[in-house]
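Q: what sequence does this backbone want?
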């Protein structure tokens, strides 16, 4: 069918034509924001899920909603190897200037900007990726000690007061939060905690891979109670059908029941894969309705596309021993597997492969939900690695 109107949108962070199955969590976050602004108790959210389930697009939607309601929004993505202050400083400056614009240079906002200036000065000494050209002034003795935890707490309290004086809330959206270093994550949690204690309107909505739950707990034990950790997973059958059918219907295109069923089986209803299969099924079909044979042909195209991009970029970042480890893991089938069983297949002691496992966790390739258990963070990665590496090498 017409490639010009193909509605599906596979891609990292690409807004889907139909954001299926996420209304409940969107509403929960909206309620938390409103409560937070009104000085009522509310918890932040850390959305947890595998690669390609739609965490980034959810954060985007939530931040758009927050902005539309007049909240002050700060959105950052944590790349590997950037410090949190370096990411936060320019965004907080814009947020404070926005607050200021509402207020017309009001005292709390001006003071918060000066405190940010102090923070910049202190962090420049500590983190060499903090480069900041603007002179924001300085507030002597506040957020300028050089101790991240201490200074970030002071900064957030000032920012919270500035937001409060404008009867709004500051909402921090942080994607890929699992890449924040433990010490910096601890400081962030502490800063949010202090705002919560003082009923200041600052809320964190983050997203990341499943390991982030353990990381948060290790950074600060009370993190467990400070946030909710909703799991963002594959869609239900009905939601997955909606994700495929709704955009097609708008263009007068239908699916055969068997065709839809086949896509659900192939994709296991993972959002990213639904977009890939939708796109290729559309491209393959000559006319509506899209049929089973179209989907079967699309499956080949979708898999070769994924192998060349989605899976490949991750595979290319692996060392030879990491590839071997993942190949052995794939051999054990879908789901989580014990470190001991993987080592056994590699004919090695658990301890001797522990560094490889640790580096795979750091790279975000595998995660451990329970002690000694390992799962792929990328859905269907096991099948992929079996396609590219024929057998387990020891
Ligand atoms: N609820 C949904 N319904 C339909 N499609 C969706 C939904 N959520 C996400 N998608 C699609 O899935 C793909 C992946 O979304 P996104 O990049 O947000 O995932 P992610 O969880 O952030 O992945 P990663 O962990 O790799 O960053 C995009 O193409 C998006 O359009
Ligand atoms: Mg993402």
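A:
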């Amino acid at each position: 069918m017409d490639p010009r109107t193909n509605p599906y949108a596979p891609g990292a962070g690409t807004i889907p034509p139909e954001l299926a199955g996420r209304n409940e969590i969107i509403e929960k976050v909206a309620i938390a924001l409103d409560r937070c602004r009104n000085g009522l108790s509310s918890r932040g959210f850390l959305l947890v899920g595998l690669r390609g389930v739609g965490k980034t697009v959810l954060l985007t939607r939530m931040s758009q909603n927050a902005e539309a309601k007049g909240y002050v929004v700060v959105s950052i993505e944590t790349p590997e190897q950037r410090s949190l202050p370096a990411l936060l400083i320019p965004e907080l400056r814009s947020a404070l200037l926005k607050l200021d614009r509402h207020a017309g240079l009001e005292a709390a906002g001006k003071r918060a900007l000066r405190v940010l200036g102090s923070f910049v000065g202190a962090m420049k000494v500590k983190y060499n990726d903090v480069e900041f050209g603007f002179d924001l002034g300085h507030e002597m003795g506040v957020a300028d000690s050089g101790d991240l935890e201490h200074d970030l707490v002071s900064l957030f309290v000032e920012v919270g007061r500035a937001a409060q004086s404008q009867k709004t809330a500051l909402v921090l959206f942080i994607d890929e939060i699992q890449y924040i270093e433990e010490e910096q994550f601890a400081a962030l949690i502490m800063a949010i905690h202090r705002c919560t204690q003082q009923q200041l309107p600052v809320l964190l909505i983050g997203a990341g891979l499943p390991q982030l739950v353990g990381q948060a707990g290790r950074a600060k034990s009370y993190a467990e109670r400070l946030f909710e950790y909703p799991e963002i997973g594959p869609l239900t059958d009905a939601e997955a059908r909606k994700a495929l059918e709704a955009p097609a219907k708008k263009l007068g295109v239908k699916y055969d029941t068997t065709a839809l069923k086949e896509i659900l089986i192939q994709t296991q209803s993972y959002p990213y894969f639904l977009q890939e299969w939708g796109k290729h099924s559309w491209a393959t079909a000559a006319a509506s309705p899209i049929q089973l044979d179209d989907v079967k042909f699309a499956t080949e195209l979708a898999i070769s596309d994924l192998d060349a991009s989605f899976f490949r970029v991750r595979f290319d970042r692996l060392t030879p021993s990491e590839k071997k480890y993942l190949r052995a893991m794939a051999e054990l089938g879908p789901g989580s597997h014990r470190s001991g069983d993987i080592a056994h297949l590699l004919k090695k002691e658990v301890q001797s492969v522990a560094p490889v496992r640790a580096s795979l966790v750091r790279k975000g390739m595998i995660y451990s939900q329970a002690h000694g258990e390992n799962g792929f963070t990328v859905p269907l990665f096991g099948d992929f690695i079996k396609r590219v590496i024929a057998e387990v090498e020891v």
